[in-house]
Amino acid sequence: MSLVETHALRKYFPAGTGFVSRLFADKKVHAVDGVDLTIDRGQTMGLVGESGCGKSTLGNLLLRIHDPTEGTIRFNGTDITALSGSELRPYRSEMQMMFQNPQNSLNPKHTVGKILRKAIEFHDVAHGDKATELARQYLTEVGLRPEHVDRYPHEFSGGQQQRIAIARALSVDPEFIVLDEPVSALDVSVQAKILSLIEDLKNEYDLTLLFITHDLNVVRHVCDEVSVMYLGEIVENASTEDLFNDPYHPYTRALFDSITLPEPGELSSGGIQGETPSPIDPPSGCRFRTRCPDAVAECETVNPELVERERDTSAETRDTACHLYDPLDR
Question: Which residue of 9, 101, 150, 295 could cross-link 35, Cys pair, CB 3.0 to 4.6 Å?
Answer without folding.
Answer: 9
